[in-house]
Specification:
285 residues; ten-stranded mixed sheet; L,D-transpeptidase catalytic domain-like; mainly beta; 3 helices; globular; six-stranded antiparallel sheet; 2 domains; SH3 type barrels; 7% helix
């Protein structure tokens, strides 16, 4: 993972409560399971709707790394919205391995499978982009950014998530939307010009809590299925980005990271209940 260098906030209490459900947060070697209490996780939050709505088109881009072999059978997704639904379908793996297909019934030439649990030891989560009978086209956590493949419905269980996250790099702002209604907003520190935060349509795949909450990753890390356009690997990881806290809050509002999206510890703690695994994350310029 790219867990390295990678206030305004108001929350509608009703939507916040509906977003708090069962989940798993890694806490060092321990694990928190079961329903999350929004007060315990996010602290005191001012109630009240944000002004404004999403409107217009949000163009996204995906990056094909040089040398990507089309014979892999992996596709690349397009933008998630608009229009913006009030729920998104997520696939949780139930098989030890999930075979991937280039089209329904057509295995990818490499015969690749996705491990479950993942190499990090977490449940394999995929964002469903299309359904065809017993087949699902899903976005998967691999290069190239926005990678998609087809899987069998029988290898997963389905659930829904209510929100999507919008990260605006120039505005240095992160917002959470339920449909077209903004329900959360906070300033961020995106990547530097030399190590930019990748643009595209991604999703949350892992929620973790660093052992050292006073360290560079702060109170929580929200892994996003986007990969650095600069680093093939970083700090022992594979160049994947995350939204996370920071021990340098003075840098919020400035392009300061190696590609991740930094928030204050207070804001990332408030974001956690709204960012269930599988939640779409759209990053735009």
């Amino acid at each position: 993972m790219f867990w390295v260098d990678l206030t305004r906030r108001r929350l509608m209490s009703g939507l916040a409560a509906s977003a708090v459900g069962a989940g798993v947060l890694g806490v060092g070697a321990a694990t928190l399971r079961g329903p999350r209490n929004i007060d315990a996780v996010a602290g005191a939050i001012e109630a009240g709707p944000l002004e404004g709505e999403l409107s217009g088109a949000w163009p996204t881009t995906t990056t094909l790394l040089p040398g990507l072999d089309p014979a892999t059978g992996i596709g690349v997704s397009g933008p998630i919205g608009p229009p913006w639904p009030t729920s998104f379908t997520v696939a949780d793996a139930i098989s030890p391995e999930v075979p991937i297909y280039s089209a329904p019934g057509v295995r990818v030439p490499t015969a690749r499978t996705l491990p479950h649990p993942t190499v990090e030891g977490y449940r394999l989560v995929m964002l469903v982009r299309e359904k065809q009978g017993d087949w699902l086209q899903v976005q998967i956590n691999t290069r190239p950014n926005g990678a998609t493949a087809w899987i069998r419905h029988s290898d997963v269980t389905l659930r829904t998530v209510p929100n999507h996250i919008l990260v605006e790099l120039e505005a240095k702002r992160l917002q959470v939307f339920h449909g077209s209604k903004a329900i959360f907003e906070a300033p961020i520190a995106p990547g530097k010009a030399s190590t930019p935060t990748p643009l595209g349509a991604f999703y949350v795949d892992i929620l973790t809590r660093p052992t050292n909450q006073n360290g560079p990753y702060g109170a929580y890390q929200i892994s996003v299925t986007g990969f650095s356009e600069v680093y093939d690997s970083f700090g022992g990881g594979n160049g994947q980005i995350a939204i996370h806290g920071t021990n340098r809050p003075s840098l919020i509002g400035k392009p300061a990271s190696n590609g991740c999206v930094r928030m204050t510890n207070e804001d990332v703690s408030a974001l956690i209940p709204l960012a269930e695994r599988g939640t779409p994350v759209v990053i735009v310029a």
